[in-house]
Amino acid sequence: MSKGSDLLVAALENEGVERIFGVPGEENLDVLESLRSSKIKFVVTRHEQAAAFMAATYGRLAGKPGVCLSTLGPGALNFSTGAAYALLGAMPMILITGQKGILSSKQARFQIVDVVSSMTPLTKMARQIVSTRTIPSAVREAFRVAEQERPGPVHLELPEDIAREEAPDLLPVPRHPIEIPIANPAALDRAGAMILEAKRPLIMLGAAASRPRLEDALSNFVRSVRIPFFNTQMGKGAVAGGSSLYMGTAALSERDYVHKAIDWADLILSIGHDTIEKPPFIMGPGGPNVIHIGYLPATVEEVFAPQAEVVGDVGLSLALLASRLEGKLKNASALLPLREEILAHLADRATESRFPLTPQRIVHDVRQVMPEDGIVCLDNGMYKIWFARNYRTRVANTLLLDNALATMGAGLPSAMSASILYPGRRVLAVCGDGGFMMNSQEMETAVRLGLNLVVLIVQDNAYGMIRWKQAVDKFPDWGLTFGNPDFVRYAASYGAKGSRVETADGLVPALETAFKAGGVYLVAVPVDYSENKRVLVDELRNRVPVPATA
Ligand SMILES: Cc1ncc(C[n+]2csc(CCOP(=O)(O)OP(=O)(O)O)c2C)c(N)n1
Ligand SMILES: [Mg+2]
Questions:
Q1: CA 231 – CA 253 distance, rounded (Å)
Q2: Do 215 and 396 form a contact (C-beta atoms < 8 A)?
Q3: 176, 217, 461, 467: most buried by Cβ count inside 10 Å?
Q4: Distance between alpha carbon 76 and the CA centroid of its chain, in Å?
Q5: Which atom of ligand 1 approaches the CA of 380 most closely?
Q6: pTM for the structure as a whole
Q7: Could you give the CA distance from residue 109 to residue 100 in angstroms, rounded to a whole number?
Q8: How does pLDDT run across 258-285, given as a tens digit for each residue?
């Protein structure tokens, strides 16, 4: 005879779950016991938020839901930011939380919070399991909803008495492949005609272009039509082998160098743009027309309202569009002459020997030590804009950043997930001294798991991005600086290794040493953030008004 938690774990195994990240409470002890004898590994973390970030990133990279587990009330509430991260970032994830018994109430209202209600606006679906009979179908439905475009988080609450209750031997609901519907030929014809008529076409790759399943189709399309492309922050790295057509990344919303091409374009073929991202450009009268190619229809915003749409499986849409365009495109490369000028600006100060290092130099040096398939996972801070603008990627999903919830604290946990999934690749977390300290306790988890991982801390002893914005808005410098631990000794106290960059030329060797050493290695690098104002405000002023804060 099995019990509710056995049915849950059998259903998770049926979904192919390999790992669950989390912090259990007494309400999950039956689930934990059922996991003990299952094929699923349980990764205990030091904070539920980190577990949720890890599960979300697992989903983002693997293309199938990551799973995390917490107790009721306090633990479940610690999942909130992770749920929002996955919801805004379209990352498939299942959050399982415990609850006091629902059939009787032995502890009155102790620790009881309406978790399902708190999760409802943060997930695609949130539900309480009220009977063992419904466990197999609830789990199958949760995975279906989490995986289906647009992917995202689903919450299941399993009360402890349902988990413990004797249950009939129900089989899990089998999975079957579900194909995404194909775009209507009329939409493809219309889009094809618009592209053929365009004088200065440009491709934009958005967040959904980074879905793991799309890499080949997207690369084939760009290589076949040879229209130059730029990407949004979260669309970075989606095209392999098309680097001669790369025009830049829209890290700001307007008037950066890449916006010269955007402003000149008369048609933008927007592939997988998700308006959850900070706008890569602002649509308005006189600007380029936009064709939206997506899994789902475009959302209409004040700053984004496409003139045509191709809705359906994006990979197939691109193949079908390419067959309508092949050999007929006369103006494909019209904007290509702008490329050199745009990219040249990005190389500015990339090798300067100033100490502390310029952000450009940090991006440049990181690129030197990362192989093409190396994965850089960013936390959220000022350096994110520099990495988005200046870091070149050639392999899909090799620069993971969050331009959706843009939360601090996800850099280290997301890098840990990348390292678990790709143990053979170099994985680097890049964090500010603010964001790193929001989840630095997971250094212990990383060391315990024996991960190979380097953490680069960009140190300015401040919440630099907000300090920058404060200066840009002409407020006095106030309230945004702090002290830091000695990061080298901090790393050592976890049983990790650490070093501090002391010279302008010290970053590359420090990172090389760290990667060669293996294990968890922390490298602290002091940054000179005066470049934020000099480049992103003063230099671009002629081209840009002040960009919005992430
Ligand atoms: C959880 C969370 N809190 C606050 C913010 C607002 N915020 C955005 S960037 C930033 C400063 C980041 O500081 P740090 O990590 O040191 O990076 P830096 O900008 O200094 O390089 C803050 C407070 C946020 N995005 N997420
Ligand atoms: Mg900082």
A1: 12
A2: yes
A3: 467
A4: 22
A5: 9
A6: 0.96
A7: 9
A8: 999 999 999 999 999 999 999 999 998 8
